[in-house]
Write a structure and sequence with these properties.
165 residues, alpha/beta, Rossmann fold, 6-stranded mixed β-sheet, disordered C terminus
Length: 165
Amino acid sequence: MFEKVFVAFDGSPESRKACDVAIEIAARFHSSLTVGTVHPPSREATDGHLESLVPFDSSGKSLAVIIDELRAQATARGVPSLEPVFLQGDDVVPTLLDYLRTTPHDLAVTGSRGLSRGQRLFLGSVSAGLVGDAPCPVLVVRVPKGRAARAGPGPARGGATRTRA
């Protein structure tokens, strides 16, 4: 059913929760998992390795360390493979959509910060952009109000979801 699962990751607690859920799904369906991050275009040609060493989240962990933690979590749950993808683009949603159109996946997973309508109007919403235009079903992982998202790897629990098929 879901041979290839993609999860959008930006280092936020909400995207960590989305990773937890994506790992759970990939484990249940024995799916490969792609963890995608979007970075602004670099003036120098790189392979994404240098960017992966820079502190990435609020705890000061580098993306390389976070990917290693996610890979260990996925391996422990029986996920056959976890591939990090470092995408470059000025706008997150079009960059993710371009990637999903050129590299087909059976499911995309994203976190939701729970922005108000006004905040979405001014700031935009990655989850809304993916739900509206992704070429595959999208699972939006929300953290229930009043409950902080976990900032570390672990099994997925709770949270309301929306999908678009």
